[in-house]
């Protein structure tokens, strides 16, 4: 009976991890689709991103329920408890990344509807690629229970922040030189900020993974300190 219960418990923990990764995959697809849509003329891709946001929200609710079940019925301790706590925190960040993808899609529709008139030529490819790479790496770190790899995501967030600041400076220059670009510049700024926030949420998740693996809260520490905590074998 005890062995049966133990197997059920292990299966529930594995199901929880699988569901978090499933949600992560859906959210990753959302932001990739939204970014790809920026270079297309068809707004249907944006509308699909907006429609699928409800799927992201539903999965979050289902994972929440599973976490509550494990906490109430299994009363986990030590690393198992940390795994459940981290899952709860991870899905919050993933849901918010889904929200940011939806923002990108809505801004993309506004830009497309306005036509190509007075749209500043600002390259969002680099910041988007880096933010998506951060998300992919933290999900991989979570799947492989790898604190060292997760810590690298914290450092990567610095570059995304710097890229956002550079885009902001470019847009300010465009608006000052030609006020007709103001509306489109603001919409592009919202997109850039949404991408920057995706980096922030990926950074948050990487700190959660370090906590899950090492049992150490590394929030509000600089990247070097996080890397040290992640690699510490004590």
Could you list some keywords that capture this structure?
234 residues; mainly alpha; 0% strand; Phosphate-specific transport system accessory protein PhoU; PhoU_dom; PhoU
Approximately how much helix is present in the residues?
over 70%
Structural class call reads mainly alpha
Unreliable stretches (pLDDT < 50, length at least 5) are: none
General form: flat
Distance between the termini: 36 Å
Count of DSSP E strands?
0
Mean pLDDT, to the nearest integer, reads 93
| Rg, Cα atoms, Å | 20 Å
> Quick one: biggest sheet?
none
Proportion of strand residues: under 5%
The tally of helices reads 7
Topology pattern, helix = H, strand = E: HHHHHHH
Task: Describe the secondary structure blueprint for this structure.
Layout: H1 2-37, H2 44-74, H3 78-113, H4 125-144, H5 147-177, H6 182-214, H7 223-231
Helix pairs in contact: 1-2, 1-3, 1-4, 2-3, 3-6, 4-5, 4-6, 5-6, 5-7
